[in-house]
Amino acid sequence: MCAENNQNQEKELEQIIASSANYRTEEEAIALAGGLSEEEAIALASSGGSTVDRQAARAAVAGAFREELGHAMEPGAKVMSADRELRYCLELQRDRIARKNIRFTEEFDPGKKPVRSAVNNVRSWQDGHYETSWSVGYINHKKTAERSGMKTFKRKDPQSICETVIDVRNGEDVSGDTYCCPNCGAVSTIRELQEGCSQCGTSFHMTELYPKVGNYFFVPDPGASTDPIWKTMIRYGLCSLPVTLLLFAPMILLDQSSTSSLLSLVSPEKWTVPSLSRVIAYIVTMIVASPIIGYFVWFLSIFFAGFKTLGKETPAALSVGSSRKRFASQMATISPAYTFETFSSKITTLFRILVFSDSRESLPFNAVKELGSDLDDVVDCTFHGWMSCKKIKVENNNVYVTGDVFVDTTRDMGDRLKVKSEVYQITAARRTDVPFSTNFSIAKIQCPSCGASFNSFKSKNCPYCGTECPPAEDDWIIQDVKNVGKKYALKRLFWAFVIIALAVLMIYVTITDLKSGYNR
Questions:
Q1: For 438-484, where are the alpha helices, taking DSSP H only?
Q2: Which segment of 275-279, 407-411, 493-497 scores lowest on mean pLDDT?
Q3: Which of 72, 249, 84, 242 has its CA nearest to residue 166?
């Protein structure tokens, strides 16, 4: 009965994908993001050989990912510019949101620099197999959530979106080569088989077709706002106008015949009923001066937001510290196939798959004994860009790496959505006696018991007969997940206190210097 239900669900999903305009090929997404023809997009997506060609391909994939991510929560959407882990993670998130009857809408409005002018290859790292780089785009990120026609969440922030683009250093590009399906005989390109044969549904175990986006995160960036500064000043000025009118109201209540002083502003006995013309003049003056007041309010908001971010991110930055060097030095003699950026990208995405999956026990990379239901109400999990490396050990031909991942989770509270900063400690393992290779390979996935083909990356159990198929031996397995957010909450409070104390001290010293200069 369970097998029949799984088969029906898969068929329904295939029908949705086939009829959905959101199921774009990678070439179509690149063409939409870059304003190119599909032929030019195909050339970029499959470019190989020279360094310039590979950099252009990575830039095109980053732009395509940005375009596809805005539609990732729509029915049937597949983000083909992402690697298979991140693509599956976004699909699971979309399905969970749909089951909870929530409609997520995301908009990525290009900031001062449009998508085609995004800064690519900001930083890059290389190991024996991969080149991992960061691509940064400037956007106004608008996210809304609705349930039964009522908005439960709304947020709009100028941000930078950072994508981790992974590419192979050496290797032949085979994405355009043709391959004959061993099941039905249909001929397709290798790139078209990433989600299985379109004719018979046969799934394949194949090497990832790079370059792909392996991870992404957002960074608050007021400079990414598309609004000109004068609009920002007016908006903040008008929003603060009611408070401003009340704050400066004593100025029009003063008796004009009396001597004006700051002390008289707070002395009601010196007040008098103002004339209508004076009230009108006061209101007009405040409206005209509102942009200046707005600029001051905007500056204060940026100032305090910066202190808030420092208090929030300082513990993470101190924890991450020398993680990259620690990982590189200890892994160099154990399993040098990964840079820390490639490893952290992989592990954070696998963790997010665990978060959104409703059948975690069937995931081939999951060996966590007890995870509980703590993550079942999470509808969004955003990576902070921070992951630390706490410990590395080798035992029984396995290397175990433990690190802390910093995320913002959005949880469904029923009548509202709540955003919370959390930290999870993850232990991942990989066999050291299995050689690592980026040479391309493709093979039909077949159940050893009943012979059916299914996507063994998404489930280790055959959906037709329930037989468990062993996971790939050359990949990482999640061994343990713990919520360690309370430990970092105390650190955040400590650093928030230190930063506020420093700010107060700076203000006090500044005022003291001004007073002493005035007295002289």
A1: none
A2: 493-497
A3: 84
